[in-house]
Specification:
Pfam families: Competence (PF03772). With 400 residues, the chain is an alpha+beta fold. The protein contains 14 helices and eight strands. The protein has two domains: 72 residues, Nucleic acid-binding proteins (OB fold (Dihydrolipoamide Acetyltransferase, E2P), Beta Barrel), CATH 2.40.50.140; 287 residues, no CATH class. Strands 1-5-6-4-3-2 form a six-stranded mixed β-sheet, with no helix packed on it.
């Protein structure tokens, strides 16, 4: 990585931090708040009251449950300290309106609900929950015991929609773009397709990052001004954080960006340095190792543990996610064609069952993880040394 590029990253990070400090309100316990929000998921009932997560804040009120996805509501309440951080105890919740995009969102999520029910009819658990997680981003779809095992093996990131799923969709759409001559039409199809998918799975940070990155990459492709993938990643990250500064402290965004950054920067370096022969599994090993170099300190900082089998589990099991995701989408389309859907269900089950068996086995190994928590100073020192080392590492990398 050239020094000029590193300097640009530092300056951009400083600008984003300044914007974050001046745009994110500081809420103290006891403060009164009032705001409007669109309901994008069904409020959950807990201890006789309903909860709704908005901008990393939990809104609690007995009156939330009567509203539906797509409704815009007005909330008045008081800031308090909850189990998940800032909590708003709303003493006044009122209906404002249902905008047209709220109605569209409601219809999309209702259709998604029908697909979820059908998948659970055709597949057992945890395979059904795993398929719904990697394709539709259904939260809490996995049984708790299997979720904990994925945490132990360091593969929990595949159980939810991420930028990887977006890249699969983009790859699947590329043949369609080849037969369309007008660049503007191709860009519109891409943007609408990605926007529709992001609406279905939810606008979480990794999906937004990947969606913006995909659109920027395609603009470079169709205009003949292709940029390096790393530069596109950094540009998309800058625009997302500048537009939505709260993502700066979002754990999923940090992990998603860190994994992508590690893949782009370290993959070729490790490949050229190690030159391993792993019977065709080298690419998976280099990719997993490249991501882990960047995200492991973050995992330790936030969760206080590090998986000792993550490299092995990622190497042995992640290769099934791409075919399972693509076949899963095909299964949704052909769900009501009996013979075809039965055959596809069987293939998807075999792939996901293999993933389940590998991770169950590795998670049951004693000492599959260790409890270690790196502090904020240690985290900063690690990344300073990592970036400094990149400026001096002369290993070949097409993205440098």
């Amino acid at each position: 990585m050239k020094f000029n590029n590193l300097l640009a990253i530092v300056l951009a990070a400083g600008l984003i931090f300044i914007r974050y400090k001046f745009t994110i309100p500081v809420l103290n316990v006891g403060d009164g708040v009032q705001f409007a929000t669109l309901i994008t998921e069904v409020p959950k009932e807990k201890y006789g009251k309903c909860q709704l997560v908005f901008n990393k804040m939990v809104v609690t009120s007995s009156g939330l449950c009567k509203y539906r996805v797509g409704d815009e509501i007005l909330i008045k309440g008081v800031v308090s300290k909850g189990d998940r951080g800032i909590e708003i105890k709303a003493d006044d919740v009122s209906y404002n309106k249902t905008p047209w995009y709220g109605t569209v969102l409601r219809e999309i999520l209702q259709a998604r609900g029908l697909v979820e029910a059908k998948v659970k009819e055709k597949l057992p658990e945890p395979e059904a929950g795993l398929l719904l997680g990697i394709t539709l981003g259904v939260k809490n779809a996995l049984p708790r015991d299997f979720y904990d095992k994925l945490v132990k093996t360091g593969t929990i990131h595949v159980a939810v929609v991420s930028g990887y799923n977006i890249s699969l969709i983009l790859s699947a759409l590329l043949p369609v773009f080849g037969v369309i001559k007008k660049r503007v039409v191709r860009l519109i199809i891409l943007s609408v397709s990605l926007l529709l998918y992001a609406t279905v799975v939810g606008f979480n940070p990794p999906v937004i990052r990947a969606m913006v990155m995909g659109i920027i990459s395609f603009i470079g492709l169709v205009t003949g001004r292709q940029r390096e993938a790393l530069r596109v990643l950094l540009i998309s990250c800058f625009f997302i954080l500048f537009a939505i500064p709260s993502y700066l402290t979002d754990i999923s965004f940090q992990l998603s960006f860190g994994a992508s950054f590690g893949m782009l920067v370290f993959y070729n370096k490790f490949k050229n340095l190690l030159r391993l022969d792993l019977l065709g599994l080298e690419d998976g090993f280099y990719g997993s190792l490249s991501s882990q170099v960047v995200v492991l300190p973050l995992i330790s900082f936030y969760f206080g543990r590090v998986s000792l089998v993550s490299l092995i589990s990622n190497l042995l099991s992640l290769w099934v996610i791409a075919p399972a995701t693509i076949l899963g989408f095909a299964l949704f389309v052909l769900m009501y064609v009996p013979l075809v859907s039965n055959i596809m269900t069987f293939i998807v089950y075999i792939l996901l069952n293999y993933f389940v068996l590998i991770n169950n086995f590795l998670a049951d190994i004693s000492y599959s993880k260790i409890e270690v928590k790196i502090g904020l100073i240690g985290l900063g020192v690690y990344y300073i040394l990592l970036l400094g080392g990149l400026t001096m590492w002369k290993g070949e990398n097409t993205n440098d």
